[in-house]
Amino acid sequence: MWDRRHVSGLASSAFRALGRLVHYLDLHEAPRAASAMAFDAFLSIIPLLAVAGWALHRLRNAAAELLGSLLSAAPPAVSAALGEDFFRISDAKALVLAPVGLIAFLWVSSAGAATAIGVFETMFVCAPRPWWKRRLVGLGLVLGAIPAVGLATLIGLAFTQLTGSIGGALVAALGPALILTALIAAFFRLTITRPPSVRRRVWPGAIVTVSLWAIVSTVFSIYVRSLARYATLYGTLANVAVLLFWLWLLSIALLVGGEVNAQLEGVRDPHDDMPERWLTPKAEGPRSIQPPPPPESILRPKRTASSE
Predict the structure, then answer these.
(1) How far apart are CA 124 and CA 120, in angstroms?
(2) Distance of CA 233 to CAs 74, 214, 222, 228, 237, Å?
(3) In-domain check, residue 279
(4) Alpha carbon distance 308, 108 (integer Å)
(5) How many domains is the chain built from?
(6) Which of the four pLDDT bands, split at 50, 70 and 90, describes residue 285?
(7) Residue 58 has pLDDT above 80, yes or no
(8) Is 150 buried (19+), middle (13-18) or exposed (0-12) by CB count in 10 A?
(9) Helix axes 60-70 and 30-55, enclosed angle (nearest 10)
(10) Where are the alpha helices (DSSP H) in the chain?
């Protein structure tokens, strides 16, 4: 049986951990970085719909079912708007995607990943990659994520159609969630370079990210459907505003997951002016217990996260 002192200690530790997380998210300008990531994702949506419509042009019924499954987590206004654009593009008889256009789509869609990589390099106090290398890594991640997301969606559809029971629906929900969690864990592992002596943490941040995505999408969908009146403020741009805000929330969730991993690995930013406030009592003490600062070649002025 836990006594009051033990419960109070756990609550105090949880408060310090949460405060340290928020403090470092603010230090690393996570809201601004999320804005850049959301804008990059927004720019890549229409080319993505064009590629999907071109690939699924001859599978109309399957395309409709697949798209409905992919957009089910989005707010209603977003699902409706993207669905209309998808079928408008897929019905175009003269749809032609030149190699240059496809390369341009991949370049734009990788911009958000490149921005996230830059933020994570700052979070983990890593040696920064050149901008072109971040772009190439982001491009590879996009190319690897497209078939994985398609596989997760097909698995969910297959289990739903084959069983139709509560157990089948549960498997249909958990299967894609596990694949998505593995994708996020791989993203954290591949985009962040750490010394071999450091014990890496990728799964806690991946689980936090996917959980926040599910919570944010559900709550935001209810909010948009029942409370929000975006059309009053934005008029015909209401769907665009909803989509951008939703993408911003998803981007923030990804950065939160990365910061969780950084804190579990014991990373402390050398640009932090007041780290002692959020340290646990055991960590407060001689400076020698803190990890040594990185080499001078790694230290750099705090940069503002933005899209290249």
Answers:
(1) 6
(2) 21, 27, 19, 10, 9
(3) no
(4) 10
(5) 1
(6) very low
(7) no
(8) middle
(9) 170
(10) 4-27, 30-55, 60-70, 76-90, 99-123, 131-162, 166-191, 203-226, 230-234, 238-264
**How many Cα atoms sit within 13 Å of 87 on the Cβ side?**
14
**Is the separation of the CB atoms in 196 and 225 below 8 Å?**
no
In a domain, 255, yes or no: yes
How far is it, in rounded angstroms, from Cα 235 to Cα 73?
24
- Tell me if 86 sits within 8 A of 156, measured CB to CB: no
Whether residue 279 has pLDDT greater than 70:
no
Q: How many residues does the chain have?
A: 308
Q: Is residue 120 part of a domain?
A: yes
Summarised one tens digit per residue, pLDDT across range 219-229 is 888 887 775 66
pLDDT higher than threshold 50 for residue 82:
yes
Find out whether 36 and 247 touch, Cβ atoms under 8 Å: no
Range of the domain at 113: 29-267
For residue 154, the 8-state DSSP code is H
263 is a domain residue: yes
Residue 2 has pLDDT above 70, yes or no: no
pLDDT of residue 271: 64
DSSP string, 156-190: HHHHHHHT-SHHHHHHHHHHHHHHHHHHHHHHHHH
pLDDT for the residue 31:
92
Residues 113-127 have pLDDT tens digits of 888 899 999 889 888
